[in-house]
Amino acid sequence: MIRRRRFPATCSAGQALVAGFLDATGGGGWGPVGTPALLAGGRMEPRKVIGSIDTSEFLVAVAASLGFLLSLGSQGIDSLWVAAFLLGGLAAAPLAAWLVRLVPPRVLGSAVGGVIRVTNARTLLRSDWLAVSGTLATAVYVVLYALWAGALAYSVRAHLREKAAEVTAEPQPVRV
């Protein structure tokens, strides 16, 4: 059995501080930085990590929005876009909560990790810093998607093996 080393709480607190700062200043960062940090920490189930990140992301977004509104004012904010984002969030939140409850933690961790890696790779490849496009970008995406598919397949197989082991390990009732 492989023992996973847990991150100390101070490390998680530092990552949370950085993630919150990135989210408030750049509009993104809490989910992509906070989710892998909590998943890698191994202290919580993936469904609880996602719920915690979503809840805290709401609070970070409210604080950042209030900061921008108080310092910059509300001119230039399109109410239609705000309403669209609110309606999208209201529709997605219950659906995500329902899905997180149904999907096994191991599979959920692989699925979420893959989404985060692919979206972050896309952001990095399109950044001015790298500016990768064409065949090289396609090759990077193909490799990432293949690794993601492999991780998902491995997670699903491991979950099914665990379920089968649980069923065979349960004591059978003795009939008299």
UniProtKB/TrEMBL annotation:
Membrane topology: Multi-pass membrane protein
Protein name: Probable membrane transporter protein
PANTHER family (UniProt xref): MEMBRANE TRANSPORTER PROTEIN MJ0441-RELATED, MEMBRANE TRANSPORTER PROTEIN YTNM-RELATED
Keywords assigned by UniProt, alphabetized: Cell membrane, Membrane, Transmembrane, Transmembrane helix
UniProt main location, coarse: membrane
Superkingdom of this protein's organism: Bacteria
InterPro entries: TM_pro_TauE-like (IPR002781), TSUP/Inactive_protease-like (IPR051598)
Entries under Pfam families matching the protein: TauE
Family designation: Belongs to the 4-toluene sulfonate uptake permease (TSUP) (TC 2.A.102) family.
Subcellular location: Cell membrane; Membrane
Segments traversing the membrane: 56-73, 80-100, 129-154
